[in-house]
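Question: what's this shape?

___
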Amino acid sequence: MQFTLPARPRRKPSLTPMIDVVFLLLVFFMLASRFGVEAMMPLPLAASGGDGYRGPPRLVDISPDAVALNGRIVHDLPAALQPLMAAPTDMVILRGREGADLQRVVSISEQLRDAGFTALVLVE
């Protein structure tokens, strides 16, 4: 006499635990991610007086490893700009050279704003 177990119907795996894990991961990454705050840096097209450019040249070249004022490398840009400025509202032209990243341009413009220079113009 031979005893055989009756064939049990094959169960399909439940997708509910996998869906739960996916939603938990989704919620985790939504809560853990940091959304960037957009910051705006005002750069006027002309000096605040609206008369255009006046006075000696004030061209700041920003490269990855140095900052040059009118073609000469300077280490303290606000101090080098001071003799060329009649007023803090005189226009200073910033030009990013090849290889200079945006963060470097922004940090130098913030350094100039902290020193009191208000009319910064960024050119390509």
Q: What stands out?
A: The chain has a mean pLDDT of 80. The radius of gyration is 31 Å.
